[in-house]
Write a structure and sequence with these properties.
alpha/beta, Hypothetical Protein Ychn, Chain: A, 5 strands, 19% strand
């Protein structure tokens, strides 16, 4: 199952909730304001790093660009819209709102 997170972790607990329920190997994709979670060296970097040990983590590049985020947590893969579509085609989607 592909888990998408579109809310900033600085404003709600969507990230923490998702991490509690995600199954090993389920990909997590950060979109919209959710991409703030993968910014390198912020207070969520350790949580994202721990999550990377059992799950692939992606961030939508256009949303990173729109928010001026150039440095992301090591191991997070930035994807374009084509990559986003491929993830959606490969997995059932659970959107954490």
């Amino acid at each position: 199952m592909l888990h998408t997170i579109n809310k900033s972790p600085f404003e709600n607990t969507t990230l923490e909730t998702c991490v509690r329920f995600v199954q090993p190997d389920d990909p997590i994709l950060f979109i919209e304001d959710g991409v703030y979670a993968v910014q390198a060296n912020n207070r969520f970097a350790a949580l994202v790093g721990d999550t990377l040990k059992s799950n692939p983590v992606y961030a939508l590049q256009p949303d990173l660009d729109a928010r001026g985020i150039a440095d992301i947590t090591e191991g997070v893969v930035a994807v374009d819209y084509e990559g986003f579509v491929e993830l959606v085609e490969e997995h059932q989607v659970n959107s954490w709102l």
